[in-house]
């Protein structure tokens, strides 16, 4: 019944089908079967199928080799993940547009997860200071250690005030040490996008 819903074919129609008849890329099915024969169970591979009305279904496929009456059989389990695939594609497109806008503006991005003490610094952020992406670690210390000594207390106080809710915005200018040793003026803006139950 699940396969009927996914493909739009009736049970009677499906019984006469070869598995290859549903696969958009039959060779991918052949390779998958070969992989199962050589390595055993295959779990969580996405493949594309043809529905009765012509639309394409993204299916998460698992295959298990089972023995029945001393014969090996393959049990295919397919889950429709088309909505998830479409969401992921839209997200990739959105991220690509966002990245293009940032690159064009010469802006850098930072994302700080305080609960896990994890900081992401984009390649563009590092490039502003003259570094390649692999030259600076994505750590709070990377940012803090490059603050100008005369700006550090003020900036850290502004971070604390914003996180505590004492100020409405995080928008601050300060100096940061670039790779060549000189200090550059940076304007940083941030916004809290999520809080956990502990705030």
Brief digest:
The protein is α+β, with helices and mostly antiparallel strands. Helix content is 40%, strand content 28%.
Topology of this protein?
Elements: H1 2-7, H2 11-15, H3 19-22, H4 26-39, E1 42-50, E2 56-68, E3 71-80, H5 82-105, E4 110-113, E5 118-121, H6 123-128, H7 140-144, H8 149-163, E6 170-177, E7 183-190
Antiparallel strand pairs: 1-2, 2-3, 4-5, 6-7
What does this structure look like?
The protein contains eight helices and seven strands; from the N terminus they run ααααβββαββαααββ. The strands form three sheets. The protein has a three-stranded antiparallel sheet, sandwiched between helices. Strands 4-5 form a two-stranded antiparallel ribbon. The chain has a two-stranded antiparallel sheet with strand order 6-7. β4 and β5 (118-121) form a beta hairpin. The protein is of the alpha+beta class and 199 residues long.
Q: Rounded to an integer, what's the Rg over CA atoms?
A: 27 Å
Order of helices and strands: HHHHEEEHEEHHHEE
Average of the residue pLDDT scores: 85
Note the beta-strand portion.
25-35%
Low-confidence stretches: none
What is the rounded distance between the termini? 46 Å
Question: What oligomeric assembly is this protein in?
Answer: single chain
Q: How many helices in DSSP terms?
A: 8
- Helical/strand content category: alpha+beta
Helicity, in percent?
A: 25-40%
Largest sheet, if any? 3 strands, antiparallel
Sum up the overall morphology in one term.
elongated
């Amino acid at each position: 019944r699940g396969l009927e819903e996914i493909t739009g074919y009736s049970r009677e129609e499906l019984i006469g089908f070869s598995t290859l008849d549903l696969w958009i890329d039959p060779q991918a099915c052949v390779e998958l079967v070969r992989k199962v024969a050589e390595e055993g169970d295959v779990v969580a591979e996405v493949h594309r199928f043809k529905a009765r009305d012509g639309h394409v279904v993204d299916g998460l496929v698992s295959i298990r080799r089972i023995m029945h009456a001393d014969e090996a059989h393959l049990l295919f389990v397919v889950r429709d993940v088309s909505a998830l695939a479409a969401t992921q594609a839209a997200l990739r497109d959105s991220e690509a547009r966002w990245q293009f806008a940032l690159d064009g503006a010469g802006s850098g991005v930072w994302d700080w997860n305080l609960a896990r003490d994890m900081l992401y610094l984009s390649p563009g952020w590092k490039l502003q200071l003259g570094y390649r992406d692999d030259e600076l670690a994505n750590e709070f210390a990377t940012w803090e250690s490059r603050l100008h000594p005369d700006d550090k207390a003020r900036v850290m106080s502004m971070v604390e005030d914003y996180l505590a809710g004492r100020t409405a915005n995080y928008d601050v200018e300060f100096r940061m040490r670039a790779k060549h040793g000189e200090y550059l003026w940076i304007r940083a803006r941030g916004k809290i996008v999520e809080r956990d139950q502990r705030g």
